[in-house]
Design goal:
Oligomer: heterodimer
Largest sheet of chain A: 6 strands, antiparallel, barrel
CATH architecture of chain B: Orthogonal Bundle
Number of helices of chain A: 5
Shape of chain A: globular
Distance between the termini of chain B: 25 Å
CATH topology of chain B: Arp2/3 complex 21 kDa subunit ARPC3
Strand content of chain A: 15-25%
Radius of gyration of chain A: 32 Å
Number of strands of chain A: 12
Helix content of chain A: 25-40%
Number of domains of chain A: 1
Number of strands of chain B: 2
Structural class of chain B: mainly alpha
Structural class of chain A: alpha+beta
Order of helices and strands of chain B: HHHEEHHHH
Largest sheet of chain B: 2 strands, antiparallel
Order of helices and strands of chain A: HHHHEEEEEEHEEEEEE
């Protein structure tokens, strides 16, 4: 009997020794993950103990890789565009819905603010602005031809009406930390969009330029966005609001630089007699030909330079900025006939 | 925890973050817009299991990184993966340390932690971009519209706005706790 009792004790002792490592391991994990084990009686822990111990090894490694990835040179992270494109494709429905809700809750500024609700008047106003843009574009072209003729150069005749395709595109994604940063538009290469495309609003107001195209979406860089180096300058032309009243004629060319508040500054000569309200249009050969003459904005203030009294600083404010809008019109110029896309 | 619920909520908040950020934007203050995703991250930090929460912070931050492109000189756009992922992880780690000291179901807690997490995320993200801007790369990338200081200030204002937004959003999220089935042995009530 004593032997049986002793064997029974021995078996218990062996069983107790065999489960000790498990008890110790469980106790260690329990102490380090108290929150995970705040359970009601009978509930299973989530995640499992094996998952927790594996995450302790994997997660720090992932963080180290993320640090390395975030510090890699830009040229080494171009491949991130692939998952970004996939992400854009997956998120597009949700973002589009957000854009629609935004358009309903916060409608964009009216394209025609100084006309009554009469639809006929509104159409006439739009037509008038379109013809005005064609006129300005033609006048720029006339002046360019006159200059070249004077130098006895042979210039190919450009068609005033360059073949273009139009597409209305919704702005589906923005960088919430960069007001004038790149924006994603719905519509990509399958819709005929290319890096030769640009965006307008109200038919003639230049909004930005397409800088990246994927199959289903494209990225637009607003003209008000800061760009590094020489790419940040936009060549423009100033048309006097009232040429007769100002006593000045002709078109004056300026170089504009975007500011952080969505306006532009440029240098002008005092003798040009520019005034607030004068229209500033695009005259930049690096842009597509169809974009020439599109309105950038109007002069809102002029300041004389103290260090150079014969020169002035002009401040140009666009009528519409990309961050106010939910939808723009993309114009894609036929590359075989483009005359101004010279990068 | 129900992963399906997380995927649905993550999709919604990411869509709000990048697709509807202009709705509450303050155009008069340079277009400052609050971060919906920040409120969601704080909610996860308060209630999700610790290890899973860290993975979710990392994933959400990475998705924000590949959703927001930066302009690159010479044309084109570039996506920098990592800054927001690290920012959310570090901010989330801080919240995970604090959550045992606060009343998790209180909306005021969510507001204050949104403010704290947002500041951390802003500093980390801008810091990484500042380091990247020192690279002698041939083609410049526009990390900041103006300067790092102004960008940081703008982000701080956005964080304050996000903290205000956390009042209704946090209240709504706490009401959805039964959907998540977090392993918390406490009575759930949203209160001040």
């Amino acid at each position: 009997m004593e032997i049986h009792h002793g064997i029974g004790h021995g078996r218990s002792l062996i069983q107790w020794c065999s489960i000790q490592p498990e008890i110790h391991r469980f106790d260690t994990l329990f102490r380090s993950h108290r929150d995970c084990f705040s359970l009601l009686p009978g509930q299973l822990p989530m995640p499992t103990i094996r998952t927790i111990s594996r995450s302790h090894i994997v997660f720090p490694g992932v963080i180290v890789l993320t640090v390395i990835l975030s510090l890699l040179p830009t040229s080494a992270v171009k491949w991130v565009g692939v998952p970004a494109e996939l992400m854009g494709f997956v998120m597009a429905p949700g973002r589009l819905l957000g854009s629609w809700v935004g358009e309903a809750l916060r409608p964009p500024p009216s394209q025609i603010s100084d006309v009554a609700d009469d639809p006929e008047m509104r159409d006439l106003q739009l037509e008038a602005e379109t013809f005005a843009q064609l006129y300005r574009k033609a006048e720029l072209r006339v002046q360019e031809l006159q200059e070249q003729l004077e130098q006895l150069q042979r210039v190919p005749v450009e068609a005033l009406n360059t073949p273009i395709s139009l597409m209305s595109a919704a702005i589906i994604s923005r960088n919430p930390n960069q007001l004038h940063g790149p924006m994603e538009l719905r519509g990509g290469s399958l819709s005929g969009i290319s890096t030769n495309s640009f965006a307008v609003y109200g038919g003639v107001h230049l909004i930005g330029r397409v800088i990246n195209v994927s199959r289903f979406s494209c990225w637009l860089q607003p003209i008000t966005g800061a760009k590094p180096g020489q790419a940040g300058y936009i060549r423009a032309a100033v048309f006097h609001q009232d040429q007769q009243a100002s006593g000045s004629s002709g078109v004056h060319r300026v170089q504009l630089q975007p500011q952080d508040d969505g306006t532009f500054i440029g240098d002008a000569e005092t003798i040009w007699a520019l005034a607030s309200g004068d229209l500033v249009v695009l005259d930049d050969p690096s842009w597509p030909g169809a974009a020439q003459g599109m309105i950038i904005g109007s002069i809102t203030s002029i300041q004389v330079k103290d260090e150079a009294p014969l020169r002035q600083v002009i401040y140009v404010t666009p009528r519409y900025s990309a961050f106010q809008l939910h939808r723009v019109t993309l114009l894609n110029e036929d590359e075989s006939t483009s005359g101004g896309a010279d990068q | 925890m129900r992963w399906v619920v997380f995927v649905i909520f993550a999709y919604i908040f990411l869509a709000l973050e990048t697709g509807a950020s202009q709705i509450p934007a303050l155009n008069s203050m340079g277009g400052v817009s609050p971060s919906f995703l920040l409120c969601f991250v704080v909610f996860l930090a308060l209630f999700a299991p610790r290890v899973i929460a860290l993975w979710m912070f990392w994933l959400l931050g990475l998705l924000v990184d590949i959703s927001t492109g930066l302009f690159r000189e010479g044309g084109g756009i570039v996506f920098i993966a990592g800054p927001h992922a690290l920012g959310y992880v570090i901010g989330g780690l801080l919240l995970l340390q604090l959550r045992s000291l606060v009343f998790r179901e209180r909306v005021l807690t969510i507001v204050l932690l949104t403010l704290l997490c947002g500041l951390v995320v802003s500093v980390v993200t801008v810091g990484i971009f500042v380091v990247r801007s020192w690279y002698p790369e041939s083609l410049g990338t526009v990390y900041f519209e103006t300067s790092a200081t102004k960008a940081l200030l703008q982000r701080f204002i956005a964080v304050l706005y996000s903290a205000l937004l956390a009042i209704p959003v946090g209240w709504l999220l706490v009401r959805t706790l039964p959907l998540w089935d977090f392993q918390i042995a406490r009575k759930r009530r949203s209160a001040w």
